[in-house]
Amino acid sequence: MVFMIHNMQKLQEAAKKFGPLCVGLDTDPSYIPESVAKNFPSPAQAVLAYNKAIIERVKKSECASSFKIQIAYYEAMGLEGMQVYAKTLRAVREAGFVAISDVKRGDIAATAKAYARSHFEGDFETDIITVNPYMGFETLQPFTEYCASKAKGIFVLLRTSNPGAADIEQQELKTGGRVLDNVGKELNRIKQEMDLSFKGQTCSPVGAVVGCTQQSDAAALRAACPDIFFLIPGYGAQGGAADICGTLLQKAGGAVNSSRGIICAYKKDARLQDKIASASITLDDMAQSALRACLDAKTELLRFAKSSEATK
Fold first, then answer.
1. What is the pLDDT of residue 1?
2. What is the pLDDT at residue 212?
3. Cα–Cα distance, 229 to 208 (Å, whole number)
4. Segments of the chain assigned E as strands
5. What is the DSSP code (8-state) at residue 136?
6. Backbone phi, then psi, for 42, in 5-degree steps?
7. What span, in angstroms and rounded, lies between the C-alpha atoms of 161 and 232?
8. What is the three-class DSSP state of 70?
9. What distances in angstroms separate CA 7 from CA 56, 229, 284, one per listed residue?
10. DSSP string, 266-283
11. Among 42, 208, 214, 248, which residue carries the largest CB count within 10 Å?
């Protein structure tokens, strides 16, 4: 019997080969200077051009494992924005990268099935999506069915990096442990169930979103979910520490997302300040600055991952 290689396994292997950086294309039109945007028919088309320029450079430099596209920025641009979202997904996948769609879907019954179909088939087909389990674990089933049958992947919200995580995720249960600990147990249960479909693969197609938080929390979650691949937000512009990422990158590993830290890198790039001031900055300038930020992030993340491994 021939077993499929699921998309989370592909992402894990890409992270080992090219480094753990995941480039977040959470590209708001406001991030593009007016002097650049005016060269395109619409703000949405400027976003698409910038996304493609970054994808092209990252591919040539082999400095990232994947791209994450946050759908909200594209939905906010209306119908044209959703066309740009679809074209961005296509560009990512055609360049050979794993595409992670940050959609955080979570609903029940027929609605959950429709969400799964909308992101794993058709115009918005992607490789991996983020899902929200807080309406109950039954909401995950339509998505895990696609993992089993089509080798897709999902990242389940486990420990997010926002202060509001304390409102639900970290609440203590009467049965013991925190809410997020219960989610972790469910991910391990699903992993065991999925092992029958994906023998010999080194991680589950069902991963977890675990933000750069406290070092003690990172160590505990990595120990509790050794075979779960992590999507790690909070690094870069959100201030998450690279040493915490190093802890989370152990065992099954993970992909560390940086969005604004890369797509807005030009704003803090010393070599571009005169061009920004004179409104002469170009799309190429911005994309090159984004590439430099990617290369710096990759170097830092690999250093801390090796340091964390050495201190185990």
1. 41
2. 83
3. 7
4. 21-24, 66-70, 98-105, 128-131, 153-159, 206-210, 230-232, 254-258
5. -
6. -160, 160
7. 9
8. strand
9. 21, 11, 31
10. GGG-GGGHHHHHTT---H
11. 248
Q: Is 113 a catalytic site residue?
A: no
Check 10, 52, 87, 104 and give the catalytic one: 104
Using alpha carbons only, what angle is made at residue 187 by residues 181 and 127, rounded to the nearest 5 degrees?
130
Cα 33 from chain centre:
25
pTM of the model: 0.96
What string of pLDDT tens digits covers the 312 residues of the chain?
Answer: 446 899 999 999 999 999 999 999 999 999 999 999 999 999 999 999 999 999 999 999 999 999 999 999 999 999 999 999 999 999 999 999 999 999 999 999 999 999 999 999 999 999 999 999 999 999 999 999 999 999 999 999 999 988 898 999 999 999 999 999 999 999 999 999 998 889 889 999 999 999 987 888 899 999 999 999 999 998 865 555 888 999 999 999 999 999 999 999 999 999 999 999 999 999 999 999 999 999 999 999 999 998 777 665
Note whether 280 and 47 are within 8 A (CB).
Answer: no
- Long-range contacts of the stretch 106-112 (C-beta < 8 A, 24+): 106/131, 106/132, 106/133, 106/134, 106/135, 106/139, 107/135, 107/139, 108/135, 108/136, 108/138, 108/139, 112/139, 112/141, 112/142, 112/143
CA atoms within 13 A on the CB side of 91: 23
Q: Which of 94, 155, 148, 156 is nearest to 125 (CA)?
A: 94
Q: What per-residue confidence (pLDDT) applies to 309?
A: 73
Q: What is the DSSP letter of 126?
A: -
Instruction: Tell me how many degrees the CA angle 253-256-262 measures, rounded to the nearest 5.
Output: 155
**Among 123, 129, 136, residue whose Cα is nearest residue 103:** 129
| Residue type, position 120, single letter | F
